Amino acid sequence: MPTPLPGPVTAGWPAVSELELLDTGQIRAGLSDAGRDRLARLEIHDQIDSTNTHLMREASAGAPSGAVCLAERQTAGRGRRGRAWISPFGVNLYLSILWRYPLAPAALGGASLAVGAALAEILRTAGVSDLALKWPNDILWQGRKLAGLLLEVAGESQGPSHLVVGVGLNLRMDPTQGNDIDQPWTTLDQALNGKPLSRNRLAARILDDLMAALEQYGSEGLAPFLDRWRQFDTLQGKPVRLLMGERIIEGRHAGIGPDGSLQLDTPDGRRSFQTGEVSLRGS
């Protein structure tokens, strides 16, 4: 569970000027003792192609579990299904975490839901209301995209495997910087009505809680995260459309299964869809 913030909603989140560059010392200082133990390596780049791509390369070269990469700007940021992730300098958070498991890659299919639930809880603790999780990996505020996740897995068929979790969180991006985004989007600044948060403190909190979630997923699987995810599932019981390439499947959102699959009630009965195969849109 996320570490509770003391006092009022924004207590412990220091105010900052509009541009606050990422700093390894400040991020390390903001971690809990357990977070510092889990963190194996922390890199911050002024510019990089993609934090996920970088850590996947580093994983192949033997980088340890708990390696973390952040960047001020990405030149080839990636979202799900090959979409570009717009990544201007210094105004958002772009970070990736490498985590190693003895498990087979197939066992990590529910990790995106575990991470999504943990990230939504962090944002709620920071004072954001009206949050929603859209299966499998989007965080919305008032129906607009606030954050996205990109999870990439590699390994032996029976294990071990490694997972790179990428987080893109819009903080203070100017509307002109998001002209190329092809869906409604928002920023944390809007969700908090302009109340400032420290980028470094927020990055530390995200790393703390996501590393804890990744560790817990390895020992307990998806089960402890299901109810945590469901509390942000605002599409439960509503009519939706699933986009599968050129196919559109319509039905009623019936929640998520024990394995993290999307459950959809269709004219042909209840059907399950696995993470990574479909996109979900409210009808």
TrEMBL record:
Catalytically driven reaction(s): biotin + L-lysyl-[protein] + ATP = N(6)-biotinyl-L-lysyl-[protein] + AMP + diphosphate + H(+)
Residue ranges of the region described as Disordered: 254-283
UniProt entry tagged with the keyword ATP-binding: yes
One GO molecular-function entry: biotin--[biotin carboxyl-carrier protein] ligase activity
GO CC annotation, single: cytoplasm
Ranges annotated as biased composition (Polar residues): 272-283
First-level EC class: ligase
Keyword Ligase: yes
Protein name: biotin--[biotin carboxyl-carrier protein] ligase
